């Protein structure tokens, strides 16, 4: 077996518009266990969409973008269901930006010798393969963007906005999440921005500039938190649609508390949906329940639903349901990007 | 809140015929993680159905029948996709027989004080409620059937056949799994038959007869194993479609080894699908992988797929897919019940 | 690599008497998460031991006996901490009886090609190996015992008592769980007795006798339930110490309800400890919480503790703690085996 | 019940020096499942300690510090077993810095109404309580430190160093992780530094300065990655001891790849231990296996061990074992903090 045999079967991203999951969700609503949780999650997400004035924040952790859900997120943005995104770096840079540059993810298997993959420069995410040589193009493009910008502290949102601008001129795959968000004025935050392929490019940028004795760009993670809190304060009513836990989940939840620290009485997130397989019992934030979050004053408990499922199985059902329900057609775009452009 | 408020929202069982999950499964085939596993499981189950001469064994553990999947299993039998069933007692007696007698399961919540439920004689399965007083009717009907039979050792299959006969005359809900299997000559095995509502009825039968000094009926679990092995030997090619692990999974897998013990060279189960959330790491059979089973000579590893999901979310998709694919239309019924009627 | 290389590193069973885990448990009592759960479980188990008149039932599912905890269970019996055992067949027959006949379990790895194991007749349980040819000696010894007995229905308890008698004359390893229980009048119940190596031996027995037109022994699983309920009724106060879930857990819990069916007002199990990695969310009994069980009237909720851990890590700590605490020294043996010998 | 009743039972941190877990680890080495994994993890951690020249990186995610393991980490630093720390913000700021200021964590329960906790300003982590009013002192102290520093970009390491300096003068509890690391020249990195209580203080600092039209301090997450990579490059041989996954795990692993991006041929991490309950199947980094990491060229696969356990149960055993083994007595301190003080 050679490298090209490993990288043959391209991941195709599911199109929630091409099928209508409504009859399935409608049945699941009258069942039990995770199926009812899935239906409740779909109902709460739709309430978020239908409520006039509610700002909807999507948080992404895990590798669902590589695993075939990339277009789901794009469709949520395009159809005006989401107003801000908080994500891990991998989902935004290594996966979405990577495909925007024309590269692909491949169907593989977890039952393989990882040394063989290593020898072929093939990276593995569970049962999915990536060509590491292609991923390096991602790192170097980040460096090119960093090199082109004024050397000062940026929030990740500002930097990702510049990535969107870059893609609007240079993308191979036109409909990436970054570019779609750029075009729809939906800000993307990556609170741990150097923990991904972007980190490699930005370290290269800084090291080169240091050698040259020149000033360099930095990424101020405090600015991210400040800006997302600005949105929370301006938005008033908010809902969270969370795929996986991690830093994005905690970060988005914490904006309520941060607003309070600034002396502003922000309401708790009114709606919250969380899809995760994380285990609640280790006290980690990825897995902490929405009820636990309410003890911290972050999330209200009236409209909250956790779905204990690997997201690729239930997210397409939920997203297809809300898409076909069509309440998004009456929504006004929030254009939160614009509040940072004054 | 009173008891009647707890028992208001009836569980409705999903109808896999009423929607076509094919476009979803077809998309999932080109994705990753549990969605691809789900599609592969659907493909393998369809191969089992399409292969001429293959006997398909359904194993059931967990409470999917109470949770809204009861009709899924009935449809698999009615449409000739399954030739034998191995199950826990709860799924067959407490859930299926219970509903056949006219009772219902109810949508509840896991966020409730269990003492309050106890005081109201409401039993809980995760987020599902049962009226305990109704469940007692189940126990006593089992006793009535036992009292009516010749006092000798029965396999669980024989006894469940008598339950089917009883239902064909007395059922309130006509299309139960037990009655459907009875009518389609599909045997049902419950290897731990006294570990459910049936146990209560049968203990009452035995104790009453003992007090009267009369002979009583017994349930011979060895006979179950012997009879299922007879089917494995007669069937030659076999496939397993397993929902949950537990005793049913191990029991069905072990027939290969049992045939060998009898000096007959039986082939391993050619196909195997397992849907489970069990954790592989405790060495329990519920969770042991199909690859591990192959080390024991039970399951071949060419066509096997584990899906790590709570079954109510993915089973409806898989079953709807194979139903609409329609390969079952060309299958001959195996009528395995008849080999025990000589 | 040859078969003998696979079967080199013998599993040695941990000796809870050889170290004192008290300082660790005492520290864990003031910590959080699973460590505090572990300490609470140890405290409740010790309360069961210290309470005059309380009958303690040990339930075993999973493969902890193969994995190095076999001597833990023996020590609990020898030191009079347990009065009845309910187990899966594998733990009692394939593991304990197997080692009593002189065979061993071996340390292996889960990272191996299972086809290679299959070719060498090596069976795998997660990271543990068994010589399949040795396991067949287990099956045939069961047949020898069955052949030697009067052909009538037996409870599994009765049959396992005969296995104890056999071992008291023929065992290679003297201190097996079966033999120790036999000698200490502690009954062992295996509600799904044919779902293990015993099933192979008993099917061989039945098939041979049928061919010869002779009567044969049967295993009446109803009798198991009846007898365990007899103990529950006679014992009045009871506590459950449960390693894994499965049929044993449900079976032991259900005796309360069964007593009620017989018109006897039995108290709920007063104490309950459960160590498991099972996921509560699929509604399976293995994973259903002790609080859920209380809605069914099975388990009281004052002294109950679930420990979400793979048992080999925490069971040795708990058992060492109660051993060194020494409250068992003041216990009267219950000798429940004797109530079936009238 | 009042607030003071909720906050009565203080968490006490386990002291690995006060008991010797060696006999337990030595037994577990010859068992199976998670117990053997635990022993192997202890052995690999000890190899890291014993190997001359190996730099040992501790990564922390989850809430083990709040749950009673805080002193474990301090003891690893004090006894020269760890040379760098990468952590989530919560473990360092909300937990360790919080206790250093004189506050406590409390033993609570997950079976409580979170609205009641909210009304009492009590925050919950699974079964652990925190007084939210005390936590605000943590936020404001961070602001005080930020206000006192020159307004420029800082790596989290630099800022935490200043926190150590602050504690060396102002701490109530003397032996915090931050202060101990400060005194032993062990750098601490928190790649998502604003995702915790520090974020609140830093946002307050920035907003106040912005209102005043003054320059403010920023946290450059790129600098963290650059600096940790500097250590990886200088250290050559490295080992990872990872408690939980999350950003810290990925961040530490990625330094190998980052070094390559800078044109330096760094070796993979030679040793890796990971203790986690995360589920591998969602493709998230928290749960991705060490073998998967090797496909990315991050971790070598000769000496790696994953332990699937909630860390509070097994970490004390492992740490006590290596402490009593004593190989740390022959180690030279690495003093990595000093390379940033040129």
TrEMBL record, chains A, B, C, D:
DNA-binding as a keyword of this entry, yes or no, is no
Which molecular-function annotations from GO does this UniProt entry contain? deoxyhypusine synthase activity
Query: Which keywords are on file for this protein?
Result: Transferase
Query: EC?
Result: 2.5.-.-
Gene3D superfamilies referenced in this protein's UniProt entry, alphabetically: Deoxyhypusine synthase
State if Glycosyltransferase is listed as a keyword: no
Instruction: Tell me the enzyme class.
Output: transferase
Superkingdom: Bacteria
Q: One cellular component GO annotation, for this chain's record?
A: cytoplasm
- InterPro entries according to UniProt: Deoxyhypusine_synthase, Deoxyhypusine_synthase-like, Deoxyhypusine_synthase_sf, DHS-like_NAD/FAD-binding_dom
**HAMAP family for this protein:** DHS_like (MF_00640)
Question: Would you identify the family this protein belongs to, as annotated?
Answer: Belongs to the deoxyhypusine synthase family.
This protein is called Deoxyhypusine synthase-like protein
């Amino acid at each position: 077996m050679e490298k090209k045999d490993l990288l043959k079967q391209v991941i195709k991203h599911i199109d929630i518009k091409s099928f209508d999951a409504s009859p399935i969700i409608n049945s699941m609503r009258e069942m039990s266990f995770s199926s009812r949780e899935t239906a409740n999650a779909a109902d709460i997400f739709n309430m978020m969409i239908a409520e006039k004035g509610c700002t909807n924040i999507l948080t992404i952790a895990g590798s669902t973008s590589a695993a075939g859900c990339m277009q789901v997120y794009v469709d949520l943005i395009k159809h005006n269901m989401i107003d801000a995104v908080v994500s891990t770096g991998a989902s935004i840079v290594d996966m979405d930006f990577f495909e925007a540059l024309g590269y692909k993810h491949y169907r593989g298997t977890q039952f393989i010798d990882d040394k063989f993959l290593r020898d072929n420069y093939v990276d593995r995410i569970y049962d999915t393969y990536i060509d590491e040589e292609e991923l390096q193009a991602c790192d170097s493009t980040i460096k090119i963007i960093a090199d082109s910008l004024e050397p000062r502290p940026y929030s990740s949102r500002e930097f990702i906005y510049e990535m969107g601008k870059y893609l609007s001129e240079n993308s191979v795959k036109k409909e990436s999440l970054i570019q779609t968000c750029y075009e729809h004025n939906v800000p993307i935050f990556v609170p741990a921005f150097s923990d991904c392929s972007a980190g490699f490019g930005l370290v290269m940028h800084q090291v080169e500039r240091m050698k040259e004795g020149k000033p360099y760009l930095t990424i101020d993670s405090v600015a991210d938190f400040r800006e997302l809190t600005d949105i929370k304060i301006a938005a008033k009513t908010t809902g969270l649609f969370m795929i996986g836990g991690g830093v994005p989940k905690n970060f988005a939840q914490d904006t309520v508390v941060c607003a309070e620290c600034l002396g502003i009485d922000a309401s708790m997130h009114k709606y919250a949906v969380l899809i995760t397989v994380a285990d609640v019992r280790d006290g980690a934030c990825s897995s902490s329940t929405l009820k636990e979050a309410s003890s911290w004053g972050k999330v209200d408990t009236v409209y909250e639903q956790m779905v204990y499922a690997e997201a690729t199985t239930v997210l397409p059902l939920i997203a297809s349901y809300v898409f076909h329900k069509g309440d998004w057609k009456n929504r006004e775009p929030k254009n939160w990007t614009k509040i940072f452009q004054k």
